[in-house]
TrEMBL record:
Protein name (Swiss-Prot/TrEMBL): Prolyl endopeptidase
EC code(s) of this entry: 3.4.21.-
Catalysed reaction, written as an equation: Hydrolysis of Pro-|-Xaa >> Ala-|-Xaa in oligopeptides
Keyword Protease attributed: yes
Enzyme class per UniProt: hydrolase
Record-linked InterPro entries: AB_hydrolase_fold (IPR029058), Pept_S9_AS (IPR002471), Pept_S9A_N (IPR023302), Peptidase_S9_cat (IPR001375), Peptidase_S9A (IPR002470), Prolyl_oligopep/macrocyclase (IPR051167)
Organism in which the protein naturally occurs: Daphnia magna
Amino acid sequence: MISIKLPWRSLFGGSRRRALLINSSRSLSVRNRNSFPWHLTLTQSCLSLFRSDNKFKLSSDSTGLNNMSTFTYPVAKRIDFSENLHGITVEDSYRWLEDPDSSETQEFVCLQNELTTPYIQGSPALASIKKRLTELWNFPKYSCPMKKGNRYFFYKNSGLQNHSVLFVQDSLESEPKVFLDPNTLSDDGTVSLSMKKFSEDGEIFAYGLSRSGSDWNSIHFKCVQTGEDFPEVLEKIKFSSISWTHDHKGIFYSCYPEQQGKTDGSETTSNENHKLFYHRIGTQQSEDVLVVEFPHEPKWRIQGGVTDCGRYLIVTTGRDCQYNNIYFCDLTALPDKTINGKLELITVVDKMEADYEYVSNTESVVVFRTNKEAPNYRLIQIDFNQPAREHWKTLLEADPSDVLDWAACINKDKLIVCYMHDVKNILQLRDLKNGQLLKTYTLEMGTVREFSGKSTSSEFFFQFGSFLTPGVIYRCDIGETVEAEPTVFRQIELDGFDPSLFETQQVFYPSKDGTRIPMFIVKKKTVILDGTNPCLMYGYGGFNISLEPAFSVTRIVFMQHFNGVFAVPNIRGGGEYGEAWHDGGRLFNKQNSFDDFHSAAEYLIANGYTSSSKLAIQGASNGGLLIGACVNQRPELYAAGIAHVGVMDMLRFHKFTVGYCWVSDYGSPEEKAAFENLLKFSPLHNLKVPETGQYPAMLLLTADHDDRVVPLHSLKYMAQMHHTFRDCAKQTNPLMIRIETKAGHGANKPTSKIIDEHSDVFAFLARALNLEFQL
């Protein structure tokens, strides 16, 4: 993934360009009274936690897990609490579940796990699913080589390691040696490598560690020559980049130094007063220099990045999940070129009305990728000697149909440019001086997953992948001629998977309002389109994030062993067709996302790919909201919903951690018009028994250290769901939640937890939809 962009949109889905497939685990652990006890040993002792005041009820027929028609769900207490919001009375009977540390919330979590885990473990397919997932997952995975100083570095996972290991080699032909193995940092793989940046000379490695999947990080430093760590550790790091000054003496980083209380990812308090600091190597964090703050804007997030030439520090600020301001400081103009205090910034953009991402610069002329007056993005040049808008120049005009996805500088005067055409990547080489097209690289239908190159080198690498291609790493060197063709540097393959037996097709279908929506469909070539096949449809539709073709072992298992069809509709709200596509599915247009998803389901059913009794839908984060809203609106259309870490309370999302950032996509519940719009589709507030038929089988997934979409969303939604259907005799489909321990929103999750989580999801679907695992 491109690491040169400033990650404003990563505050929601984990990536600016594509959504994370959230992972979790079914591991059990003993209660820790100092943290959220998400899992307890499954014994009747758990029930002793529930007092005699009827806060919770459990069916006396505990064996009813095997027959949902005789099963009574646990019922959480309902409090008499309501609020008048913009003239509308809104009940919030489960407000008490917003406190993750209360004994009552802990009791609720315990009972939910007592319900869900036996049901999943009772699936006849579970052992076979996990065995097959483990077998297929056990193949070597590599990243592109990165040249830092005089050495090359790359990541490799031998197969089932919890985290990829960072290797170093003197040349591409020399024997690799382990440089940093994150698997040694914890016994259970819950400490992960999250941020990393080498000094400009490649001699010091700055790296961030995340614990239990939290967005909080600590930054450490390692001497590349000796492998020894420096003594200092930087704490309270969140939503930060790492950027070195070119004298190799220190880094710029962002943190929340004033954050009070817990900072381990299990808290729900808002993050405010982000600040930019400069740290000198060999000193303690207490000596770090505060260089930029905006005390009058406590919700702004601040990023600082040093330009390729080392002369400028570019500072960007963002408030929501789109648009940012730009400032800069000429580091060479500082007295004695020393950073001793707050920096005097020169303003380039002071109105958050567009996105700006630094690409490269030639002396004072800086290139940005922007959607300013260009919904499909363009490249502009801003001369920092004349930064006023009237002096800006266009380097590369926006394409009328294709989205300019990213750009990177190589060989001082060349650009690698990646476009997205109908959700498929196009890779080009262009001239940095005038934007002229020099070469287009031939790609199949898929995605450039990773790029490695720098402005001072003619050599670059990129990794290509697709739904059926695990990964191909290419190397190219344009030092002698720009016509040089990329050659295969490394082919990633896995045993037991023959891609020739499968096929990928892209179709276009009309949505409710007639808009043409693209959808990828992947399946075995032998699948007969008679409507009897199970289908898993995955969606996101938000925050300008695009769902591009990507390889997934779990999807292969579903298609290979359940004869399943996998589908990805690229619904509005994403970035597949630029800012216009994003705008078409956000704010007061959010219902378009749901309509696009419903129409995708109707297309699959009408064309024989599946039937409503075999159609499962899945989404994570904003995609979890998608699942919750869609099953509420069209319960007859879906057989099952899998909602990972979803935003389910659309009236209070802005009150926890960084939820306030999402008003750019959802609107603010504090404003009457936005509130009324949110109330129409908020999953928590629109649960009801269907007039005909029953509610789809539901599995919610959340985790104790998710400080992006805090667990209370899923807990309150599940409590309300059980209340709604507790007296509904026709509701035989299971309604359950899986609550993970020592995990977060999904990033950097260890392999063991990923395999466990996906095994549980497919075991749940197999049991709920009566699917047979086929050898």
